[in-house]
Specification:
Structural class of chain A: alpha/beta
Number of strands of chain A: 8
Strand content of chain A: 15-25%
Helix content of chain B: 25-40%
Number of strands of chain B: 29
Order of helices and strands of chain A: EHEHEHEHHEHEHEHHHEH
Radius of gyration of chain B: 29 Å
Radius of gyration of chain A: 17 Å
Shape of chain B: elongated
Number of helices of chain A: 11
Shape of chain A: globular
Distance between the termini of chain A: 16 Å
Helix content of chain A: 40-55%
Strand order of the largest sheet of chain A: 1-2-3-4-5-6-7-8
Oligomer: heterodimer
Strand content of chain B: 15-25%
Largest sheet of chain B: 8 strands, mixed
Number of helices of chain B: 22
């Protein structure tokens, strides 16, 4: 299993220098990829802009959206951006798409929330047809898994304990088999960490996921805040058959990169 | 900490006990609107595993509970005049009233304040509490008050049921199945002390109405049940405790707390009574919540910890309960199963017991099943006491004898790709889609069966046969799913330039970017009927042992069957009979060319898994029509993919329940896949008669 690290593109307090330094350090570290999240109505850096900036200061590490909310975007422009990123970065790009979870992002983008699944399918079909970057899709419903198996190279899970990942991964493989795809899907997992200031990390997660109501507390409780928790989590994901696990920062502190690298090396 | 618990059922009382034990400084009051000795229902069941948890949590109550327990390790199944016994199950039960008394006494001992006859609603004063626990059952007032915030879903599940007692003392958990002119009734019964047993009667709602039970009062309904189960009750009475017919309510909540109010037990979740887990789950909840307060001083953190621990466990129990409830709703259709297979099907209904698990509990029953299944496949031969397990039992179907029930499909299109699968031990190898014409291909990689392809297929089949396996050709026409890019990059990805014109029942494109198909004309249909027939003749010539006509997944023949893809206004569209017309014509032509002594199968999506699409009732009608047309002796059960945007239901074995239904409700042998990955799953599916053949997906096909 490969382990990637998230860029702090949705954590408060990220400025340009921090962001670029984060990417540079990760490029030098043990990480397989740099990943970004997507939120329109939240203080954050737009994911493809973020990855393009990261591409400019890195040479080795993979660059992934986990995920970008496809239906908010015009497909041709999204494809153009991703292809441009691919041109700048070389073959390091993984584009993960999903429908996202927030109505207000759709309202702000002026896009109808209904029909988002079908719209994502259209986007994936178009992206798949014209381009050669690795394509992933997220979402837990049967329709989402079928879409993933139909058009993409694999599945990106929304995050949670290894057992939750394993359960959805089995469904993703069932979808893959049902659609008659050869081989198996790439399986990507995600988890949150804060190895320095745990309270700040938890506060960010409660705020970021406030729209989910009581669920935000559960996500905050799952934040990995000790070396042991990170290691147990990584082991659990290995056992669950994950191909690439992205650990996402909850604190925009540059030392978090080194702390995580140290834990993974130990 | 000040704790107000609403509801003095097992969950609320047990939580009081465990919190008081953990910290005597906690001030705990339990409020209950009923008097201390009021209780509904009769006995409650625990498993061995639950007892272990109770022992670890509180030794004194564990001792008292187990003192008064009824224990048994046998399940009796009374079916078609026979009693089948299965051992090794280790259950115990206790009178619910007795359990409550023990827990109440322990509460008193530990200084937990119990207040009975206190009516609590969500606006009531529950005191200045740090934590409010809603343990007020399936109709929880707190849950209803915060239904939206909690994301509550409450819906009826399964058939009608009534919870009686009886003075018949059973010595086993006993299932009784009694057929009536109105349908099948079943009983779930078990002893819980030395005088009394629980006796739950259940039937589908339609049966309940036809029997007139909706019109009967309590006494009349008792008399009805006593009459119906006279033989099983052996002169004993049914006892009522406000025993009325009910709908089971399935409760789930997205989150189990709101502010400092937390749901516990049935208030938070229910699991259909047929898996007997309600009290167990409730008491486990109490243990988990109490432990969370040992780990966290902060109320919020403890509640979140409790939810994180319990929700996955409860979800799994509810999944098993859903499967069990669905089983009992349809068990009347299993009347054709031999008693031993009926028993195995019943015991494995919820997915929690497999062939391998049951082998550990009751090796003799499993041996009998294996032996019976083996004997059934070898008519005329004397039964063998020692037989291979179900997936390795032989099968005779459509004039074909297969060495075992395992089917594999290659990932590559070449005839030679079948050979390693035959060598791997599969009794039947099934090709991927082979198109009847070049226009009928899904992609350029999709093989066809032209005259010059007969020889390579023949050579491959000779090798398959040399390995002792048989081979079946999956033959079809991609229809509007044709002209796509190769499958390694995706499915239904349009080929664009370089594609070829595609045809379908109607001119409706399949998915985004898919080419618009041309609706078949009468002339096209005549040409395609001939092409299907010619391909069948070449398949026979090539030496295939079986031919599977593909009517699934939105391909050409399937496109006629579904109203989503068939918008025709001629004799081939509209009514089900019309939609069936072209597939039946093709079947007829194929049957003419296909040798009688070889297997003819159809691959069929029995539901579209899509709104306004084909549902299972119509899907089964189609299967019946295909079988009735003659010659079809195996249905390969599939679902979905009729349209690109469906709502499939994926999980391990996601087609097994549909196959079970086709096999019992249509009455035809079935082949099923649906992501079966272990040999134990295959044994369970075949052993239970949910399918005759299983298509296996090995996790690591490279392992020899």
């Amino acid at each position: 299993m490969r382990v990637g690290i998230g860029l702090p593109n949705t954590t408060p307090g990220t400025d340009g220098p921090l962001f670029l330094e984060w990417a540079r350090r990760a490029d030098g570290g043990p990480f397989s990829s740099l990943a970004v999240l997507d939120r329109l109505v939240y203080d954050s850096i737009e994911p493809l802009t973020a990855l393009t900036a990261a591409a400019a200061v890195t040479s080795r590490v993979g660059l992934a959206t986990t995920i970008v909310i496809g239906p908010l975007r015009n497909t041709a422009l999204l494809a153009k951006q991703a292809a441009s990123l691919q041109t700048i970065a070389g073959r390091r790009v993984t584009l993960g798409l999903s429908v996202g979870a927030r109505h207000d992002d759709y309202r702000a983008a002026g896009v109808d929330h209904r029909g988002r699944g079908a719209r994502l399918s259209e986007q994936l079909a178009q992206l798949r047809g014209d381009h050669d970057f690795q394509l992933l899709a997220g979402g837990a419903s049967g329709a989402a898994l079928a879409r993933m198996a139909r058009y993409t190279d694999g599945y990106v899970h929304g995050g949670g304990p290894p057992r939750a990942f394993a359960s959805v991964a089995a469904k993703a493989q069932a979808a893959w088999s049902d659609l008659g795809r050869p081989g198996r899907p790439q399986l990507w997992g995600q988890g949150y960490f804060a190895l320095g200031d745990a309270a700040r990390g938890a506060a960010y997660l409660r705020d970021y996921y406030a729209f989910t109501g009581g669920f935000a507390d559960k996500i905050a409780a799952g934040n990995l805040t000790t070396a042991r928790e990170v290691k147990d989590f990584v082991r659990g994901y290995v056992a669950a058959g994950c191909d690439e696990l992205v650990l996402l920062p909850t604190v925009a502190d540059i030392d978090e990169v080194d702390r995580l690298a140290e834990v993974l090396a130990g | 900490m000040k704790v107000s618990v609403v509801g003095a059922g097992p969950a609320g009382l047990y939580l009081g006990i465990l919190l008081a034990k953990a910290d005597p400084a906690h001030e705990i009051r339990v409020m209950e609107r009923n008097p201390p000795d009021a209780t509904f229902g009769w006995g409650v069941v625990f498993s061995e595993e639950t007892l272990g948890a109770l022992r670890d949590a509180d030794q004194p109550t564990y001792m008292e509970i187990t003192d008064t327990f009824a224990r048994w390790d046998t399940v009796d199944i009374r079916y078609r005049g026979q009693i089948l016994r299965s051992g090794g199950h280790s259950f115990s039960a206790i009178a619910r009233k007795q359990l409550l008394l023990i827990l109440q006494r322990r509460c008193h001992e530990l200084g937990v304040k119990l207040e009975f006859g206190v009516e609590v609603d969500a606006s009531s004063d529950v005191g200045p509490a740090d934590l409010v626990v809603a343990a007020d059952g399936v109709n929880s007032v707190f849950r209803r008050r915060w239904a939206e915030e909690l994301g509550s879903v409450v819906e009826p599940q399964g058939g009608k049921y009534v919870w009686f007692g009886t003075d018949l003392v059973l010595d086993a958990f006993t299932f009784v199945f009694r057929d009536t002119e109105h349908g099948l009734f079943q009983v779930h019964s078990y002893p819980f002390d030395e005088r009394t047993s629980t006796f739950i009667v259940e039937c589908p709602e339609a049966t309940w109405r036809q029997a007139g039970l909706d019109q009967m009062d309590e006494q009349e309904s008792i008399a009805f049940c006593e009459r119906l189960f006279a033989e099983d009750l052996a002169g004993h009475r049914l006892l009522s405790n406000r025993s009325v017919w009910l709908d089971f309510l399935r409760v789930s909540n997205r989150t189990w707390h709101h502010g400092n109010v937390v749901l516990l037990g049935d208030a938070a979740h229910t699991a259909h009574f047929s898996i007997g887990s309600g009290t167990k789950l409730a008491m486990e909840d109490a243990t988990s919540l109490a432990n969370a307060f040992v780990r966290h001083r902060d109320v919020e953190a403890a509640i979140v910890d409790y939810e994180l621990e319990r929700q996955p466990v409860v979800e799994r129990a509810q999944q098993a309960a859903d499967d069990s409830a669905a089983y009992f709703e349809r068990v009347g259709h299993h009347a054709q199963l031999a008693p031993i297979q009926f028993a195995f099907n019943l015991l494995t209904r919820s997915g929690r017991i497999s062939h391998a698990n049951l082998q550990l509990r009751d090796a003799e029953l499993v041996r009998s099943l294996d032996s019976w299944l083996d004997g059934a496949a070898r008519p005329g031969a004397p039964p063998r006491a020692l037989a291979p397990p179900p997936a390795f039992a032989p099968l005779s179907v459509g004039g074909l004898t297969l060495a075992n029930r395992i089917v594999r499909t290659p990932q590559g299109p070449e005839p030679s790709s079948l050979v390693p699968l035959a060598r791997s031990g599969a009794g039947l190898v099934l090709t991927g889609l082979v198109a009847i014409t070049p226009e009928g291909r899904t992609s350029v990689e999709c093989p066809t069966l032209d005259d010059d392809h007969v020889a390579p297929w023949s050579a491959g089949l000779d090798q398959v046969h040399a390995e002792g396996a048989r081979a079946m050709l999956r033959m079809g026409h991609a229809g509007r799913r044709g002209a796509t890019a190769p499958a390694d990059r995706g499915i239904d990805v349009p080929l664009g330039p370089g594609g070829w014109p595609v045809v379908s029942a109607s001119a409706v494109p399949y998915g985004p970017g898919s080419p618009r198909p041309r609706a078949l004309t009468q002339e096209d249909m005549a040409r395609l009927r001939a092409a299907f027939a010619a391909a069948a003749a070449r398949a026979a010539q090539a030496g295939f042992d079986g031919l599977e006509l593909d009517m699934a997944h939105g391909y050409l023949l399937a496109s006629f069957l579904s109203p989503l893809s068939n918008r025709r206004e001629d004799d081939y569209g509209g009514s089900l009979a019309n939609r069936l017309r072209f597939p039946l014509e093709v079947l007829d032509e194929v049957r003419r060319e296909w040798p009688d002594d070889r297997l003819l199968a159809v691959r069929l999506s029995v539901t579209d898994w899509a709104r306004h699409g084909l549902g299972v009732d119509e899907g089964f009608e189609i299967a019946r029509a295909l079988v009735a047309a003659g010659g079809v002796e195996l249905v390969h059960v599939e679902a979905g993919q009729t349209v690109a945007e469906g709502q499939p239901e994926y999980r391990r074995g996601f087609l097994t329940a549909l196959s079970d239904r086709v096999r019992s409700e249509v009455g035809v042998a079935t082949l099923v896949g649906g992501y079966l990955t272990t040999v134990d799953e295959l044994h369970t599916v075949v052993g239970a008669g949910r399918a005759d053949l299983c298509l296996v997906d090995l996790a690591d096909p490279e392992v020899a």
